[in-house]
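User: Could you check the structure of this?
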Amino acid sequence: MRYLLLIAFISLPAQAVPVIPSFNSGSTSAKTTSKQNTTELIESWTYSTGYEYTINGTNLSITGNMTPKTISTGTHTVDGVTTTHHGIDLNSKPTVTMHTQGAATQMLESYQGPGLKAFTRISRDIITESVTETISTFSGN
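Assistant: Sure, the predicted structure tokens are below.
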């Protein structure tokens, strides 16, 4: 029994046969196509937290405080930053009358309060396409 076990572990040498290609020429080609679509969105907000108040003209008599009382008109929060808006108390504006009755008179009163002044939105799509073609030709002697 000992002899049989020994025979099972004896191996024979492996034989290899060389492979020789049987073609003389050939070619291969590859094509890769890719497409990328990117959507870009840009938004911009412009806020004013104060105010502008003006009175001007000709032939005017102005009485009272030229600077109306400033009051808080609200707040807004953007990205965790809270901002307080300031405007004027419209009941504290100065009184304007005509200086000389019958004379040429011009008056302009303007008030721009706090808040959103401008909003801009730009949205655009960027499409990128790429095509790569590779052709290889070979021949043997």
